[in-house]
Each structure stands twice: as structure tokens, then as C-alpha cells.
Design brief:
This protein has 53 residues and is mainly α. It has one domain. It is 72% helix and 0% strand. The chain is elongated. It starts with a helix and ends with a helix.
Amino acid sequence: MDPLRFSIAVIPIAVYLAVLGLINLRRRPFVTTGARDIGAVGIGILADDRLGL
């Protein structure tokens, strides 16, 4: 598998999971809404775009 294509696929998912992890570090239980979920995916895509991949 080409490392570049693998990075393009994995980096947005990793950023998405990191954002969800930061949201869940709150003291009280939290259910993510659809809007925040889409926002987290958007952050992952933007992070991937900023890296120039």
C-alpha cells in the first residue's frame, strides 16, 4: 500500500477521533450531537487539507 494514500485516508479519521476524545474529557457524560459530529469530521478534513496531502 502506498504510504501517501494511506496517510490521506488515516489522518482525517485520526483527527476526528482526537476531537471526539477531547470532547469526552469533560467531567460530565456527553452525547455528541449530529452537528458537533459533522464539525469534528470537518476539522479532520481541514487538518488533512492544511498538511497538503
